[in-house]
Amino acid sequence: MEINRNNYESFFLLYADNELSDAEKTAVAIFVEENADLKEEFSQILQLQLPAAKFHFDKSTLVNAEDYISPLEEKLLLYLDNEAGDDLNQEITKLLGFDKEIAASFALLKKTKLAAGDEYVFNNKPVLYRHKAAKVYSFKYLRWAAAAILLGIGLFAGIKIKNSGRLFNKQLQNELVQNNNNSGSKNNNTKPQAKQSNTQVIYKKENTAITGDNNSSTKPEPVIEQSSFNVSNNKISTSVNNRVIANNTKQGKIKHPDFIQQQKITPSSQNNNEPALIAFNKPVEPNIQPGKNEGTIVNSNAAKNIIDENITPLKEQFAQAAIFKEIPEENNNDKILMMEENEVKSSKVGVFFRKLKRNVERRTNIKTGKSFKIANFEIAAN
Amino acid sequence: MTEREYNECVNQYADNLYRFIVKNLQHEEDARDIVQTAFEKLWVTRHQVITNKSKSYLFTIAYNQMIDHIRKVKRISHKESFNEQSLGTSSQQHIKDALQHALNKLTELQRSLVMLKDYEGYNYAEIGEIMNLNESQVKVYLHRARLQLRSYIVKTENII
User: Fold this and answer.
1) What is the distance between the alpha carbons of residues B40 and A309, in angstroms, rounded to a whole number?
2) DSSP H helical segments within chain A, as ranges?
3) pLDDT on residue A141
């Protein structure tokens, strides 16, 4: 729309309100120049604008006097709280250097700063400390301890049994000696001629001529031909199959098949390494020719016959005792076999293990058949 | 946070926290309870709390507990720290007592701000985090509190 004499008033007002574009403003100016009679009217409209006036309002009157913080105070407070930047710090430092009033004001502000004192101590700190509960291994530990105790008891009991077995052997030995003495005194020829007892270990070779039983054996074996043990005038001689494999082979005492060992046995001096069988017979002259590397058993059958005919109950008892006595402890498995079941059950060890089993069953509440559990290990109690 | 770090926190911050609370509440038993509660909460949430933030965490909990306590109990017994003995001591002691008295005249908010700033050395932003205020609010409230303290000290000095 172009300015003309019909619409010039609205253009003049828009010009006064600064609502026209630069092109329109130029058009209005050209129009006023071309129409001089409208120039006065245009100037009157422009004069209607209010002049820009500067007014200063004192804001301090609006705030509480106590709460009002002047810019200087604010700077000082920031400086006091260490919250001022580097520039402000330098500015304040300079101000405090040459302005005594500001320095006094700052000194007063500085007095408001609380000094850290230690007058307040929380005495109940142990209540605040926390400790996690330690892991409990006591149950397992107790199990192992129980197992160790039981093992210890077992070892102790084993040693004791072993010792008691030895004692038992010694007692038997003593009894035997006493009985021998007694019987010897009865039969006038009293002294047992144990010192004369001989044990002869003979190794047979293959294809060697051996008279007597088992002469067909092919492997070299230690053979005990005979032992003599005179109990009385009645000479008793026996041999069991004419040979016993002795411990000596295990213990390496007999190293060569041709080796022939002759050893004297006395009842009082027992040697565990000796052959386990002692035969009672009349003194038999061993028909051994060591130089020929072969042994000959001559009188074994004859000895048997003599035993069968002449053995008396008392002598049999002695013989049993002697047999039992001479068997080494570790090979003496027959001992327990010879006992009756009731005796085994009522033995001290049996009673001990039964009590132990009962106790463990009660404590652990484990009911097994003939076994009991210790530390997850089931031990048979047969 | 491990158990050991937690116990270190107890050693390091229990006294400070207790001082902060007891000076606000003026009640030792309540202050102890609040400190204990704060550490209890720290222990419970120890797996979520970073060790170097534990102090501000403790103060935040304690401050909120304290505000709750004040609102609940409505009991603030101002201890009169002025007594005849303190009046008779040196000017330094006098200013200290006057300041303590002036501190008690402040609101809990202003008192907490001053104590967190002066005792614990927190900056405005950290105080704002603890007290749930923005930095400008902390600045304005703290400055007003300082000016109030100053005016109280000036008045007391003039009287003496």
Assistant:
1) 101
2) 8-16, 22-34, 39-47, 71-80, 86-98, 100-111, 125-128, 138-186, 248-251, 300-310, 313-326, 334-338, 341-345, 348-364
3) 74
Is the distance from CB of A263 to CB of A198 less than 8 angstroms? yes
CB atoms within 10 A of CB B151: 14
Residues 6+ apart with CB under 8 A from B24: B66, B108, B111, B112, B115
Cross-chain CB nearest to B146 (options A112, A130, A131): A112
- On whether the CB atoms of residues A279 and A311 are closer than 8 A, the answer is no
* Chain B residues within an 8 Å CB radius of A111: 95, 99, 150, 153
Q: Domain ranges for chain B, please list them.
A: 1-82, 84-160
Rounded-to-integer distance, Cα A225 and Cα A238, Å: 10
Question: Residue B144: which of A67, A120, A121 has the nearest Cβ?
Answer: A67
The minimal CB distance from B99 to the residues A81, A112, A127 is found for: A112
CATH class of the domain whose range is B1-82 = mainly alpha
Helix (H) or strand (E) segment spanning residue A295: strand A294-296
CA distance B102 to B151: 9
Q: Torsions phi, psi of A256, nearest 5?
A: -130, 140
The answer to whether residue B95 neighbours chain A at the CB level (below 8 Å) is yes
Which residues of B are less than 8 Å from A125 in CB distance?
Answer: 10-11, 14
pLDDT score at A256: 44
pLDDT in tens, A281-300: 444 444 444 444 444 444 55
- Amino acid identity of residue A282, one-letter, is K
Q: Which pLDDT score is estimated for A66? A: 60
Q: Out of 1.10.10.10, 1.10.1200.120, 3.30.70.100, 3.40.50.300, which CATH number does the structure's domain B84-160 have? A: 1.10.10.10
Whole-number Å distance between alpha carbons of A226 and A199: 6
Token pair recorded at residue A56? 């200063």
Position A146 pLDDT exceeds 80? yes
Flag if B18 and A122 touch (Cβ within 8 Å): yes
**CA of B19, closest CA in chain A: separation in Å?**
5
Alpha helices in A39-70 (DSSP H): 39-47
Predicted interface score ipTM higher than 0.85: no
Is 90 exceeded by the pLDDT of residue B104? no
